[in-house]
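Cast an eye over this sequence plus tokens and explain the fold to me:
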Amino acid sequence: MKSFYEAIGLSFVPEKHGRGPDHFSATSGELVLELYPSGKEADVSDLRLGFDVRSLPEVIGRLIALGVDVPDPEGQCIVVNDPDGRRVELAQEKP
């Protein structure tokens, strides 16, 4: 999971809040994304995340290297599934 989100440009640090579980956190501008361990299967079929990335071709290359299926690698906006099945939309950041 973590390597997928690192491939799209996020940098994670380990975190723990009080007695809570160990997890990873990444900050992008004012956005904070935290990845927590899950002890059970969650229904992620209706969840879709979206990110603008600095270089879509570079991100696509890193995702393909991880074995992620990229249906339209030539597109200006792609939708891929993260390792837990969440749909993730990636678009080229506008200048």
